[in-house]
Amino acid sequence: MKRKYLIVSIIVILLALVQGGLLVVLRPVNPVETVIKNNDYLFSYTLDQEFFDDAYDQAGDVQLFSEKPYGVIVPHHLFVKGKLAAIFNSLGKFNYKRIIILSPNHFDRGYDNFISAENDWQTPYGAVVFDYNLYQRLNKKIPISSNKKALTGEHGISGLIAFVKKSLPEAKIVPIMVMNNESSAMNAESLARAIEELTDKDTLVIASVDFSHEQNLTISNQQDEISIRVLQKMDIDQVADLKLDSPNSIKILLQYLKMRGVNQSRLIYHTNTSELLNQPAMPGTSHVFMVFFKNKE
Q1: Is the pLDDT of residue 141 over 70?
Q2: For the chain, N or C: smaller number of CB within 10 Å?
Q3: Which domains does the chain have, with CATH numbers?
């Protein structure tokens, strides 16, 4: 009888220690399980599901390419949300496991060349999970600071997150804001190499970039013609002179693609707000949708 009471007493004491946080190591520790995730979400540009449902209605059931892209360039300007939905719908068939989004640092927040945040993203379709493990491995090779405040409101990322969740619901993400400065440009190759070394064919790299700004349709088209030609040639040396909002994001993408052996590109859409509104003299924003893939594998 005394033995029974002794066992019960030990169990009670152990439960009290566990609940009080004084006894925590009862089994081997998996480093992944010890990660304390901050569930204070970052958010999609809007949580209005009807807004994005309308985009997918505009897109329809279309498959824009049959080859698997390793990288894409898309705008973050939601004026063309229907075309964004069409691109992401087409990407959805490839079941990527992880997505890296390279975005402008529109508001020059933070002090580092490359900035991310260790947070999941809430969208109208549910949460997109941050790939903590990939981020940590990248950060060991090249500094990528974590700064939730800096990423808050960055539409280069928040504008695309809902499309990721809708079309690629199982994919994890690592969003990276890229400073538009010489230091970032000098480190672009190092980040591209780290991405190439630490990822595989189930990874998609997205450059979230808008093109010509505040120009009429004629000038914008002239600028975009040059940009598209440079991108199709994957001519990294000419990227810095292009009229777009994140040359360094494009440079990282192209360097990564070359390291991965990607050598083909396809222009899917080229649009301009001035043309879409039938106001050619009005200053507008242009958009290039381009995918990059290998020859038949």
Answers
A1: yes
A2: N
A3: 37-293 (3.40.830.10)
